[in-house]
Amino acid sequence: MVLEVTTKDQDGNQLFKTVKQYLNIGLDAKGLEKFAVWEIVKISEKSTAFKAEETKRETFTIPLDGAKTVEVSARLSYLYTPDSRPMLMKWASKTFEAQ
Amino acid sequence: MKRKTTVFILLVLFVGVVTAAFAGEGEGPGVGQPLARDVQALHQLFPNAKECASCHQDHFAAWQRSYHALSIKTGGFKGGFKGHLGHVERQQGKVGRDDYMACFYCHAPALRFATDTMVKEVADGVLKGAIEPFEDLGVTCSVCHRIGPDGQMTPYGVNKAFYGPIQDPQQNLAHASLYSARHQQSQICQECHEWRAPFIPCSSVYNDWVTSQAAQRGDQCQACHMAAEPGKAAKDGPDRTIHPHTWPGGRSELQLLDAVEMTIEGTRQGNQLMATVVMKNTVPHSIPNG
Fold first, then answer.
1. Do A55 and B266 touch (CB under 8 A)?
2. I need a labelling partner for A89 at 20 to 30 A (CA). Which of A35, A80, B172, B178 fits?
3. Is B259 in contact with A89 (Cβ distance < 8 A)?
4. Which of the four pLDDT bands, split at 50, 70 and 90, describes residue B8?
5. Which residues in chain A have their CB less than 8 angstroms from residue B284's CB?
6. Are B149 and B66 in contact (CB under 8 A)?
């Protein structure tokens, strides 16, 4: 899964963009990270996949460059395989006004 | 007298043909039945899904669109199967029945009741892309509906019945119908969607579900992946609550839309914004998972 977070100011200028990936990391019998499922005997604790019923909170520090209004948008997409077409799972946006 | 002799000869020939379709390479797991050595013989043990279509059109049509129907046909399976066998060959210098069955056990479950020779023929067919003779050996109607309440998958001939979640099945001439509470529970999915090391970790959703809050509430896999709707289980049958056989999951955009809740929180601090994206996985297994 891929989370893409973007921020735009009141004029539509992009102030910030970041991408974060969530995936299982498999280990072979020697503890080496492996992608091929047939080599995997254990799932690494470094895996970033969403656990069952888990809530993840990702915080980003976004420079505003004097913007009065900013809109933060987030899109979470799912790739069944690394080279497959991303499918949109969820999106959200929120506008923050100048204080 | 001549007629009786002819009938006897025909009977001997018939028995000979049937016997020839089953080979002396051992017996099926736990049922004392000989192993099948060709597709026709295997379909005597686990009937072809196409035979179910005449009375169960809707379920058959749904199943045809599912990845259960494509379990040995997809490029993903072929690639994984090839990779697994290559890995085993590099490790052990050879591959055999157990290595083929590591994948076929779930992707073509009826092959548990096939000879080594037939299993290798199917494996060669998958690897060469020549799957047509074996294309009806996926996760078919009969393999799931021949799992009894005890969780054992047995050939149709054992009691000529199919198991399902309907408590008052309509009697019919095609087959006996028996109620199985297991078909309403996650345990029916367990055998192929639970990861038991050292087997290949294709799917571990059952492992996740077991310890989930959903499991504690009594929510089963079927609630999301076979969501109940009104309909008929069989042609000319009574109106019932039925369960579509498409099993939407990670390839279903609609299913994915419901899997995660998302909100954005934030506070401005001078000339910067601290924005937090909150994502809740609403399903009782990890994402991604198989």
1. no
2. A35
3. yes
4. very low
5. 52-53
6. no
Cis peptide before B198 (omega within 30 of 0): yes
Give the sign of the dihedral formed by CA B38, CA B42, CA B43, CA B49.
negative
Query: B275 near A58, Cβ under 8 Å?
Result: no
Cα dihedral B164/B166/B167/B172 (nearest 10): -90
| Residue B74 pLDDT | 94
Residue B186: count of CB within 10 angstroms of its CB: 22
Residue A20 forms beta bridges with which residues?
A3
Question: SS3 letters for A33-63?
Answer: EECCHHHCCEECCCCCCECCCCEEEEEEEEE
Element (H, E) at B93: none
What average pLDDT does the structure give for chain B?
91
Q: How many angstroms separate the CA of residue A32 from the nearest CA in chain B?
A: 15
Strand partners, A57: B278
Q: ipTM of this predicted complex?
A: 0.96
**Where residue B3 falls among pLDDT bands split at 50, 70, 90?**
low
Distance CA B288, CA B155 (A): 34
Which secondary-structure segment (H or E) carries B5? helix B2-21
pLDDT band at B200 (very low <50, low <70, confident <90, very high): confident
| Per-residue model confidence (pLDDT) at position B52 | 97
- Residue B279 β-bridge partners: A56, B262
Q: In chain A, what residues touch B279 (CB-CB under 8 Å)?
A: 3, 50, 55-58, 76, 90
Any CB–CB contact under 8 A between B285 and chain A?
yes
Which residues from B are below 8 Å from A20, CB to CB?
Answer: none
Per-residue pLDDT, B103 = 96
Contact across the interface for A94 and B266, Cβ inside 8 Å: yes
Distance from the first to the final alpha carbon of chain B: 64
